[in-house]
Prior knowledge:
The structure holds 2 protein chains of 2 kinds. Helix content of chain A is 56%, strand content 2%. Chain A is an all-alpha fold. Chain A is elongated, with a radius of gyration of 33 Å. Chain A starts with 6 loop residues before the first strand and ends with a helix. Chain B has 2 domains: 3-137 and 252-310, no CATH class; 171-247, no CATH class. Chain B has 8 helices and 2 strands. Chain B has helices spanning 10-47, 59-84, 88-121, 123-139, 152-163, 190-197, 250-294, 312-345, and strands spanning 6-8, 303-305. Chain B has a two-stranded antiparallel ribbon with strand order 1-2. Chain B is elongated, with a radius of gyration of 33 Å. The relative contact order of chain B is 0.15. The model of chain B is unreliable at 340-346 (pLDDT under 50). The chains are: A mainly alpha, B mainly alpha. The interface between A and B is medium-sized, with 29 and 29 residues. Chain A: It is found in: Cell projection, Cilium, Photoreceptor outer segment; Membrane; Photoreceptor inner segment. Chain A: The chain crosses the membrane at residues 21-44, 64-83, 104-125, 264-286.
Amino acid sequence: MAPVLPLVLPLQPRIRLAQGLWLLSWLLVLAGGLILLCSGHLLVQLRHLGTFLAPSCQFPALPQAALVAGAVALGTGLVGVGASRASLNAALYPPWRGVLGPMLVAGTAGGGGLLVIALGLALALPGSLDEALEEGLGTALAHYKDTEVPGHCQAKRLVDELQLRYHCCGRHGYKDWFGVQWVSSRYLDPSDQDVVDRIQSNVEGLYLTDGVPFSCCNPHSPRPCLQNRLSDSYAHPLFDPRQPNQNLWAQGCHEVLLEHLQDLAGTLGSMLAVTFLLQALVLLGLRYLQTALEGLGGVIDGEGETQGYLFAGGLKDMLKTAWLQGGVACRPAPEEAPPGEAPPKEDLSEA
Amino acid sequence: MALLKVKFDQKKRVKLAQGLWLMNWFSVLAGIIIFSLGLFLKIELRKRSDVMNNSESHFVPNSLIGMGVLSCVFNSLAGKICYDALDPAKYARWKPWLKPYLAICVLFNIVLFLVALCCFLLRGSLENTLGQGLKNGMKYYRDTDTPGRCFMKKTIDMLQIEFKCCGNNGFRDWFEIQWISNRYLDFSSKEVKDRIKSNVDGRYLVDGVPFSCCNPSSPRPCIQYQITNNSAHYSYDHQTEELNLWVRGCRAALLSYYSSLMNSMGVVTLLVWLFEVTITIGLRYLQTSLDRVSNPEEPESESEGWLLEKSVPETWKAFLESVKKLGKGNQVEAEGADTGQGPEAG
């Protein structure tokens, strides 16, 4: 049974391996911590922007998965730090001998699996943001006027604060406000002829104006904000046609939010990729260190050369051993079958 | 009678030195924190210097920055001294410097305490500069064409949006100044001509406010113009309407922001001051106990440490006498030199 990917490790390279592993483990701890911070930040942002994403959107799963993956990476890093430190000190190593094996399995399966899942989510989910934002923003704009309807009374404040903070207006532009009634009917004078005309002029009986809320106003404009009668070019004479129209925010909130969330998801994804690489290196290094020290019987300072390897036998042999050991455990009348790699072949031939 | 005498054996001395070494390194960290707090306050004051007439006093952040740097320097030095204190050979090098160093430490602690007090007390000057600065800022709101003032509109708008405030003391301040530039007024309109003629200075005054005064929590779309005219808007009473515009004045809003900043910085500085006083006291005990040991040349013996060799009034008397002696000493030397030269000449 040839060990898989053996590596001869005399004393000096073993020490170098342990030291390098210590450094990599601290880097892994740092990366795990950064992922925790970044996904926490994304979760807080999503809490504020939750009203503008459709309820069916799966995007919040990404920071949640990244949070767990980051925590596991942090734990793996700390284990690596402890184990590499212990492998340089004969007094500290014995307690690690027993736990290192199961920890490596847990780290590879759990940590690696979680990171792969989180990476997959980071690649797949931002695509669904477009539709979710479209639906969410449309609903929010439609409910802007419902400041007295329970369940939607916060929509006006949230949309105003969104437009003020992210410097955007409407979904794709300020003209979106022309298509929704954003003035509550409670503040419309039923005796005013203009109001009656506007309501009767469309099928749904909505009061539509060519005006926008105050939160669309751009403070960089040199003139006081023009909010009403925006389609009438004679209502507000342009005093300097050469100057660009900075009156309202030019961008739509859909584009701004999409870019913002996709940037955050992209950053998180790249950090997850780097952490995956670091974790793989740390786990590999730990495995080689563990097998090399097992070869010496757990004696750290042994001057002998040992081999570090990934697996004791080839993959086929490993599976066979595992299957046969499982079979031995299930057999009702166990023969004296010594556990080990050589005898299973004889068992097979007997059976 | 020594003040607060404590007996120290070798183990206790070692423990004291090690504890002080650790505390000194924590104190270096605290010094860095104070430095960054001072820097943060300086940046915040600079950010809003436009509405403070560029005449705000930077005394508090500058002194915090200075104290932070000094604290780092002194405490790293003290850490080195504590580290060397365990080795009699190395400690002998430091011995002559320790007394003046401790005197400087006491001075530093006094100044740190004063700086912490300043954080709490220097709010009044800020209020005046803010009031003046905001008044001027609102005056220049409409000068978006004048170079040097064209940014004032943007600054005031973003200030009112960020701090949720309107005007200097309230939204009525906007009624008293012309905040709409003449460039955007239609002088052929009768309404404009009437308004301009209605006041002595020929200004276009309206009972309206800029859009940045609007409160997003209001249930109705923002009413910016004709605020005091109830009949201009349906179902509107300006006396009872509270949610339409921000009620707070920007002076009060900015003052409360900077006050809370400076208060929290003052609290942190006081905590650091307490820590520093503890370190100075510990260093004094270490110095006195090690001094008593070095005389009999037996490093393992017990010794006593104290804060002051005699009680406080006696120490003060001794200090005054030594100052007098210094003065007399100069006189005696001068006379001696004269009499010495006298017989030689004579």
